[in-house]
Amino acid sequence: MDLLIPEIGLVFWQTLSFLILLFLLTKFAWKPVMKAIKDRETNIESALAAAEKAKLEMTRLTNENELLIKEARQERDELLKEAKILKGKIIQEAQQEAKAEGEKLIAQAKKEIEDQKHKALSEVKSQVSALSLDIARKVLQGEFEDNKKQEDFVSNLLKDVKLN
Asked: pLDDT higher for 68 or 136?
């Protein structure tokens, strides 16, 4: 039971030891420990602030990237639209050019056909006139072999001619 009820001397020495330890800890250890705790608290706060700043920066960059992606998509869509328009124009120009070339060839063919037709008609006319002259010559030779027929022919011609 001695241990449960301490003596006065033991309490005095324990109190004195405690106060000396408290004084020494306050004098030498308390300030560095408090400073270390304060530094650690400051470091944690700065790390949290940096993390928050990084989070905000990441959000900003994400938004900026989304905006850039959206702009790139719009630009791509515009380029595709312009390419389609250009394709349509090129096709239309090629069709018009082909049509004009076709019309030109058709006109040229028609002109050539007309020229060939006129040439053929001229040739036929000249052959017809040559044949007509040959026939007329042969007919006249046959008609004029007889003197009586010649005199009848001349008299018929003279009847037709009227003097003014």
From this structure: 68
